[in-house]
Amino acid sequence: MVDQQALTATVPTWSGELVAGLHPAAGGDGHLACSADIVLQALVACGGVTLAAVATSLGLDLRKAELTARATWDARGTLGVDPEAPVGLTGVELVVDVEAWTSDGIRAGDSVIDRLLELTEKYCVVARTLTAPGTLEVRRA
User: Three-class SS string for the chain?
Assistant: First the structure.
């Protein structure tokens, strides 16, 4: 549901309602979820779940797995004040701090960790959507 007066959108989720609002750079006060933050949070969530599934498939025990998503954003594009500025996130990165061990109790080396991250990126739905988006159609109901 959209509230034009408050400039918010309420989205029902399985864990309750999420109210999204404007980023402070676009006029929001910072107490509501920002859509760009939601995208990055989805990337971290999907990346984490995929990392765990891939590690399990490879027979690895994750002793440490911390994920952080970062992106560049230029408010001028979203605000329409600079037609040359991009609208949306650019330069998205998922930083993974991971430590894994093999079933033999040996710490996984760089090549194993690299393969783990390669497969995580390959099978993470959000990562794939950001790197190779399909089509999007905005239409009337």
Answer: CEECCCCEEEEEECCEEEEEECCHHHCCCCCCEEHHHHHHHHHHHHHHHHHHHHHHHCCCEEEEEEEEEEEEECHHHHHCCCCCCCCCEEEEEEEEEEEEECCCCCECCHHHHHHHHHHHHHHCHHHHHHHCCCCCCCCCC
